[in-house]
Design brief:
- The protein contains 2 helices and no strands.
- It is mainly alpha-helical and about 80 residues long.
- The two termini are about 30 Å apart.
Length: about 80
């Protein structure tokens, strides 16, 4: 029986009492803590910078590529070169 999938050498089992549940990105913590920071917004952070247009464009392009890769991974598509 398979419990999870990961790259070889990257997964392991741990005792439940040794684990701190933190949730998934965008979902916040699993406990009722009120000190949750909002997710980092690349566009807002870059809008605060003056100039550096090509660097901003490059960072936004990189962010978009990572998002597409995460979505493709969710459908089981592997990007390998």
């Amino acid at each position: 029986e398979r419990y999870f999938r990961c790259e070889p050498g990257h997964g392991c089992y741990v005792l439940l009492e040794d684990v701190e549940l933190i949730g998934r990105p965008g979902q916040g913590l699993l406990d009722d803590s009120n000190d949750i920071e909002p997710p980092f917004n690349v566009d807002e952070a870059l809008d605060k910078l003056v100039g550096m247009l090509s660097a901003k464009q490059h960072l936004k392009s990189l962010r978009n590529r990572l998002e597409v890769g995460r979505r493709r991974e969710g459908f089981g598509v592997k990007d390998s070169k």
